[in-house]
Amino acid sequence: MAWCDTCIASVNDDIVGTDGACPTCGSIIVAPTRRPPSAKFWIFVAGTAVYLVWRIVQLIQWLLHP
Ligand SMILES: [Zn+2]
Asked: In the chain, which end has fewer C-beta atoms inside a 10 angstrom radius, N or C?
């Protein structure tokens, strides 16, 4: 699957033109793997990091005060 930034939609590789253009708007499509991670991804990473830090804090508290 390729991603079209102009249409804000994924485009099936089967219908992408031989020049790599989007069949809908004609702009050259950038492959999804070359896009930077979305904001949702970083929110998820941040949430996971906060959770892990909190669990480590709980572990330390448990070790100090069993
Ligand atoms: Zn397009």
From this structure: C
Other Cβ atoms closer than 10 A to 35: 10
pLDDT given for residue 64 in this prediction: 95
Residue 43 CA to ligand 1 center (angstroms) comes to 27
Q: Kindly list the domain boundaries of the chain, sorted by start residue.
A: 1-35, 37-66
The Å distance, Cα 16 to ligand 1 centre, comes to 10
31 Cα: distance to centroid of ligand 1 (angstroms):
12
Q: How far is the CA of 29 from the centre of ligand 1 (A)?
A: 7
